[in-house]
Amino acid sequence: STLYAFTTADTIELHAHIMFEGEERIDNNMSNMVDVYVLDAYTNGGTTTGTSSAMLNLGSLNSIAEMIYYPSEVGLYGSLKGFELTYDMTWDEEELGIPVTFYVGTTTSTKLVTDDDPYTASWIDTDSLEFTLAFSGLVDFKNGENLSLYFPFNEPLAYNGKDNLVIIAIKDSLPGIYKYPYFHSMDSDSSRFIYGDNNSTKIDPSNIE
Predict the structure, then answer these.
(1) Is this model's pTM higher than 0.85 or not?
(2) 170 compared with 35, residue with greater pLDDT
(3) Under DSSP, is residue 27 helix (H, G, I), strand (E, B) or coil?
(4) Above 60 in pLDDT, residue 166?
């Protein structure tokens, strides 16, 4: 066998080719091509307690969500270079060119709560944490189930593997789409997730009420 080490993130096509000495028919020895995504160090949104469209709510003009991920869900430490979401898109149509922005940061808090109300999620005071603009671009949601969507970070995020990772996801300034994806990579039933939307004002993550 031969081992090959990829040095950069890339998208490639692979196929299997059977080599059999003395075979007369060689036109059926190659399998179909399969797309393979070669990724660098990245984290996969790790909770799968159900699916929800709230992580990136496409049904409103503007939407935002905040989620805390624990180190056991991140699964890596060092330089994080991307983030992956898993989703279902069961409608016949695909939704292409959706504007999406991600901010990332770390916190020692395990919940999005305050001392005044330790049971209800509330928005993070972004002045208290350092957030980095990790990704901003257009995203295509394809039709299917358990699909993966990889977001490469603009710059690697230094992560110590001990603090909790905070992801802020924003979908901005696109008319509401009522055929939208459902995400696995979040936990909508706990106080570590919160989301909101509006149909009037562009969202500023540093000033959320």
Answers:
(1) no
(2) 170
(3) coil
(4) yes
